[in-house]
Every structure is written in C-alpha cells, then in structure tokens.
Design goal:
The chain has 266 residues and is of the alpha/beta class. The protein is built from 11 helices and 8 strands. It folds into 2 domains: 192 residues, 2-enoyl-CoA Hydratase, Chain A, domain 1, CATH 3.90.226; 47 residues, Lyase 2-enoyl-coa Hydratase, Chain  A, domain 2 (Orthogonal Bundle). 48% of the residues lie in helices and 14% in strands. It binds 3-methylmercaptopropionate-CoA (MMPA-CoA).
Length: 266
C-alpha cells in the first residue's frame, strides 16, 4: 500500500512504514499523523515487527511548521494529544518497532524515533530540538520519552541552545542503540527486526509493554508486577516448547561477541 504521505509494505512478517514527504523533509502534518495511525494499526494486525524510516535525504524535520503557524490554544492541545495517542500506539501497542534514521532527526522527528523500541542511525544522522528557536515547546511526548532517554538535564541543554548532536554524541546521550555506515541503517534495522520477529510474541509484548510501565513504578510495585509478567510468560505453551527445545539441544546457543581489538584477556 502506498498513500500520498506514507508508504507501507509487508514482507516476511515485517511492516515497513516510510515517511514520504521528502520535498518537505518529511515534516509531520495533521494528515501525516492520521495516516500514521492507520498504518501503525494495520502493522499491528498483520506484522510481528514494524520498521519506521524516512524517504529522501532526511528521516524527519519534525512538526509541519507551516501548518502550525496559526493555531488556537485548544487546537494546539488537541493536536498534541493526537500525537501522544499515535506515538503511544507505537511504544505500547501490540508489536515492537525499530526505526532506521538518517539525515535530520529533529523535533517531532526525534519524538517519533523515541517512541520506537530500537533506534538505528547511519552516520549522516543529526539530532536537535529547536523548539526554543521556533518559539514553541515539545508536544509529541518529548518531555516524557526523550527526557527519559537522555535525561531532562541534557534535553534542557538541547532545547535552550539549539545544539545539534552528531551520531557519536547522540549515542553518548543514550538516543541510539546502533550506529552504522551511511546508507546502511535500513539493512541493520531489517536484520534486527527479523531477529526480534523470531522471539515469542508474548515475550516481545511483555518487553515493550511491561518494561516502560515498571520503570514508572515504585520499586516494590515494579518487582511485584515483574513476578506476575514473568509467571504469565513462563507458563505459556510457547515458553514450554522453547525451554524444552533448549534442554533437548534443539535451540541455538548464544555466540560470544568477537574479541575486542587489543584485548589480551581473551
Ligand atoms: C518544512 C520543515 C518543517 C523543512 N515544517 N516545512 N523543525 C525544525 O525546526 C526543522 C526545520 N527544518 C530544517 O532545519 C531544515 O529544513 C532541515 C535541516 C531539516 C533540512 O534542510 P534542507 O536544506 O535540506 O531543506 P530546506 O530547504 O530547509 O527545506 C526544504 C523544504 O522543506 C522547504 O520548503 P519549500 O517549499 O521552501 O521547498 C522547507 O520550508 C520545508 N520544511 N522542514 C514545514 N519542519 C509536536 S511538537 C514538535 C515540535 C517540533 O518538531 S519543532 C522542530 C521543527
């Protein structure tokens, strides 16, 4: 399926969702949010993992500034709440999402990336929150999701100064899981998505839905909920089959990572 603003493809149980407004640097308008909601819903109904990426030279330049130049306060609140609802569907919906980043990952584009579960960026990617320069504030969940990733202190720096991070800095700021050579973010994202798709779907659901909620709980509540989720997953038929496959030596063993160059400890 290809609409005007987004592309959608299903392959090997992976849903590929492409932001497709390259002439406007994939800026997110109200119509983009509406279409995104529809394709995220569709992905959750037929795929095991979703991949979000941008067509053209940039992942996403954030909020469509032209459209938002003349908003009333109530329209602003409603628009922001709409972003929250769609990004919540990504972060706490039925399937995990990976994003493949390149070029500008800015403002609402970074908020979108922060709502996915794994962020892969190629070395062309750069990251900024220029809301201060534009006279606005984050409204697509950045104060919650981006602040949780990089800390409110670092986010304050980005928003006050308009600082632009390269991939090395963004990785240090905990924004990125993987940094890859230019042009290879999608290949890496696909490789990871296939790996994730081979997990038990119930485990994937528990990982993406229980972890962020437990993080928001008091320690004792979190530990209690962890026990419930652990028991719920461990007693599923799929867990029984997978645990038996391991003990029967039918399941692949973990492979140790390659030796670190210069290490003499083995
Ligand atoms: C846009 C947008 C946009 C580009 N809304 N139209 N986001 C920003 O503050 C980032 C603003 N954009 C940029 O800084 C640059 O466009 C880029 C660094 C991303 C790319 O630069 P470049 O030189 O490749 O493109 P350009 O020439 O600046 O833009 C090409 C066209 O895209 C141009 O339109 P044209 O009709 O003149 O060709 C731009 O106007 C248009 N364009 N970005 C609308 N964002 C829920 S709250 C979230 C709050 C935020 O996201 S704040 C951050 C907003």
């Amino acid at each position: 399926m290809t609409s005007k603003l987004l592309t959608y493809d299903l392959s090997n149980n992976l849903a590929f969702i492409g932001l497709n407004r390259p002439a406007k640097r994939n800026a997110i308008s109200d119509a983009v949010i509406d279409e995104l909601e529809a394709v995220v819903r569709r992905a959750q109904s037929e795929a095991l993992v979703g991949i979000i990426f941008g067509h053209g030279d940039h992942f996403c330049a954030g909020l469509d500034l032209a459209e938002h130049a003349t908003r009333t306060p109530i329209q602003g609140i409603q628009g922001s709440r709409r972003w929250h609802a769609v990004f919540d569907q990504i972060q706490r919906g039925a399937i995990p999402f990976v994003c493949a980043l390149h070029g500008a990952v800015v403002g609402g584009g970074l908020e979108l990336a922060a709502s996915t579960h794994i962020r892969v960026a190629d070395e062309s990617a750069f990251f900024a929150l220029p809301e201060g320069q534009r006279g606005i504030f984050v409204g697509g969940s950045g104060s919650v999701r981006i602040a949780r990733l990089m800390s409110a202190a670092r986010m304050t720096d980005l928003m006050l100064t308009g600082r632009v991070l390269n991939v090395t800095e963004a990785e240090r700021f905990n924004l990125l899981n993987y940094v890859v050579p230019p042009g290879t973010a999608m290949a890496k994202a696909r490789e990871l998505a296939l790996q994730i798709a081979s997990n038990a779907p119930l485990s994937n659901f528990a990982i993406t839905n229980a972890l962020p909620r437990i993080q928001d709980m008091a320690q004792d509540d979190g530990l209690f909920v962890e026990s419930l989720v652990a028991s719920f997953t461990q007693t599923s038929a799929e867990a029984t089959e997978r645990l038996q496959a391991f003990t029967a030596k039918r399941a692949a063993r973990l492979a140790a990572p390659p030796k670190i160059a210069g290490s003499d400890t083995g």
